[in-house]
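Lab notebook, bench 4. Still working through the backlog of constructs that have no structural model yet. Next entry is a single chain of 800 residues. Request: give me the structure tokens for it.
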Amino acid sequence: MSAVSPYRLRPLLHISLLLTLSSSPLFISPSWAETAGRRSYEVPAGSLGAALTRFAGLAGVNLSVDPALVRGRNSTGLSGNFEVEEGFALLLQGSGLQLVAVGEQAYTLIPAPDGSSLQLAPTSILGANDSTDGQSYPGGQVARRGSQGLLGARDFMETPFSQTTYTSETVKNLQARTLGDLVASDPSVRATNPAGGRYEQFTIRGFSLFNSDVSYNGLYGILPTYTIDMEMAERVDILKGPSQLINGISPRGSVGGGINVVPKRATDKPITEFTTSYASNNQIGAAVDVGRRFGEEDKFGIRFNGVKQSGDTEWDHQSVDREMAVLGLDFRGERLRLSTDIGHTERNTDAPQERVQIGANAKVPNPNDVRHNYAQAWSKARTEDTFGAVNGEYDVSDSVMLYGGVGARKSDHDFLRHAVSITNNAGDFSVQPRDFTRDENVRTATAGVRNWFQTGPVSHEVNLAASYFYMDFENGGARYAAAPSNLFNPVDTPTPGTPTRTDAKVYTENRFSGVALSDTLGFFEDRLLLTLGARWQRVKVDDWTDGVKGDTSYDEEKVSPSGGLLFKATDRLSLYVNYMEGLSQGKIAPSTSVNEDEIFPPFISRQVEVGAKYDLGSFALTAAAFRIKQPAYETNATSRVFGPNGKRENNGVELSVFGEPREGFRLLGGVMYIDSELTHTVNGAFDGNRAPATPKYNVNLGAEWDVPNVRGLTLTGRGLYSSSQYLDQANSKEIDSWERFDVGARYAFKVEQKDVTVRASVENVLDKRYWSSAGASDDSEPGLTLATPRTYLLSATIGF
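Model written out:
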């Protein structure tokens, strides 16, 4: 037998192996178990028997159960800080069973005398897992728990990060059709592309976030590249700050934060809902949502969501036709939980709007003078995405869980578009048609082990995970003869005919791999939680142009450390601090630059954040102060060469509110302040300037009021504000501040024992015209985004 060649492990793998072998209860028996006082627990949803067994193991107590009592019963799990009997009571809520002590640290179950489980005082369920949609906070708009990839799902009060998780109820009540409609509720997030454009794009804390960087149940690259429909979402997690430790490197390297879409699952209660919708000018749609559980103990679940919507929008000669179908299947056993999701979306947009680029000799135009769609009637955007994912969890024991997921996507995109780059104050621009195609293939996977154990008075949650992401895409197309048009008085130009130039075919392969290790240590009965972790990441990018290997490919790796400390000063107040570091894929030169498609090396981003969270039971306040640093990029105004130019530092403060401060009155919103400064620019030309497309203030506040004495009637309102923004690094061009107001109402009632909800709202009720964004501060294609005119939304949902 030949000698085995040595295999050089990465430094992080050495550390992870040593720590796992030396501390895991798989190899040693714990000498201590915490049996008294409040501490942190994480029990996933599943069968009641499995949930009780895990909780008893974590608490270090004995539980004897007659299998017949728990057979066929399920639990929504729990996450938070509890005493032993409090935790058992929460798991048993609604089960008809009751906990009985039979000795020191020993319990059994009996049927409750009145058929219900032990009830708790209202003040004792602050960390309860009280619903299947992520434990909705009072008011139902925000969930208590959010997904945090490597670290699992956690209660917001036990998270050393800034995160907001929106529920499917919020999606419905906002009548959110796309992700862009939903994130308008968050002051840290802004859309940077027109609502009637080819694709959606956002900023979080002033940095770009592309749809490619939105994860699906923790897996990157699965969701559609250009627009994400919201009817598929059970929850939407928005995490602020670099998230590479949690989910690994994202495809486009977003550093301001991350968004995760949690798919819908069948609930214990059957779901059959049909929704009809209308959006002005003439958008008519219908959606179905069907969910059932079946089989022994309802172990199997199926959930289907389908949408069809089409018609004209508020803009001239613009129409949108979209279709979505997503099927979710799941299995929940005693120790094994599996799920799979399969989806297909299609979106056809005629005359999609583009950002308006401003030439060196043109001033920022007055948005009140832009009254017509400046996109040509023949322009179009056709996107088609098919995707799927499989996820699983297996409880090896009460303290060890294996988990993993795989996913894939295939997409075909076809655009016939033209840029809008005005050259003078009169608003003249040249319409140069471009046929652009893009085909994408994605394969991604993650696998890990999570281990809970005690070492003396210190609790541990160790996570070891590996991830892999692969994406290839091919860009191609052609150019056509140019024709003149005008921003204020658009000119109909001929439909493109014979191409004047064929673009080179650019083929690119991205491979990202990584291994991450973290440990959350709990001190003083888990009142002090310290999370330490690191992720080794490798970024490999190769590209070819017309079959010729490019010279900008790279293969780089780095170990990125991160950490967080959370202190529960009281049961209602949590204080935290974190440091997060991440490696991001390098920028790609845009089509508006002379070095189009050039790939730049990866870069490192760093964040420091301190914050506080105050939970009043029905109303919560959070505050965070942060600093994020990363390289700055620009397209030179004279040479039109895209590349790095200095560094940028965003220092900011966020305040957010959510919940129901008074019965029947709900609030959701907050404010973000950012001081964004450029440094180390070429020859110091722009040092001290504000980074482009970064307003100092974003303010959002939404309110809902249940009208007294009119059961089921709710009035809604929302206000959004952003301060002025610069368009360029020189700070020579600026857009004004803007505000938008939305109003609405909904009425819930019954017809022949069927639940009916009618919703009506008006977005931009004052019909204000403004530039909503100057692009994205670290984006390769700056430009102005024109706000959507007044839009009417109407829908009716009936539950059978």
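Notes after review: The longest strand covers residues 434-455. The CA atoms of residues 63 and 669 lie 44 Å apart. Flag for follow-up if needed.
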